Amino acid sequence: MRETILLFHFSDKDRRNKLTRALLPLRMKIREVAREDYLQPVGYLAGNKEIPSTDEKYDGEELDGEMMLMAGLSGPQVDQALRAVRKSGIGPIPYKAVLTSVNQSWNAIKLFQEIKSEHGQMETESGARN
After folding, report:
1. Which of 1, 7, 77, 117 can pair with 73 through a Cys bridge, CB separation 3.0 to 4.6 Å?
2. What pLDDT score was predicted for residue 121?
3. Edge-to-edge order in the sheet of strand 95-98
4. Residue 67 parent element (H or E)
5. Is 41:106 a contact under the CB 8 Å cutoff?
């Protein structure tokens, strides 16, 4: 599978363009996922031929925030991508993930819920330590 970065709910065209320009030098495939494809397994969306697609189309609410999924990247490539995001000047993307054997069969809705839950837990834990 080719190194791929999937973008979900980047509705602000300027933000999306700045992010895409920042990631282009990394020579990774960048794909914006349409809302109707949110029920597809994220592994399938990332190009894993072993993950079957579904015929379902999503017509529910949009995600509560932007989400970025990095697939097929090595550790150093993930670091490069995150540095490029920081240097892009678009500000934080709180919901980021790496495609794993565990989450590759999840759809975008489930992945977003899991990341959002983990993000909330980290904020709660860091607040308890302060």
Report:
1. 77
2. 74
3. 29-33, 4-8, 67-71, 95-98
4. strand 67-71
5. yes
Return the number of other C-beta atoms located less than 10 Å from residue 46's C-beta.
23
Strands 4-8 and 67-71: antiparallel
Cβ atoms within 10 Å, residue 52: 11
> In the chain, how many H helices and how many E strands?
4, 4
Domain boundaries, the chain: 4-129
Using the Cα atoms of residue 17, residue 23, residue 25 and residue 31 in order, give the sign of their dihedral.
Answer: negative
Residue 17 to residues 21, 40, 45, 85, 120: CA-CA distances in angstroms?
6, 24, 20, 12, 28
For residue 53, give both structure tokens.
């697609």
- pTM metric for this prediction: 0.91
Measured distance CA(41)–CA(39) in Å, rounded: 6
- Residue identified by tokens 């300027």 is 14
Q: What is the pLDDT of residues 9-68, one digit of tens each?
A: 999 999 999 999 999 999 999 999 999 999 999 999 999 999 999 999 999 999 999 999
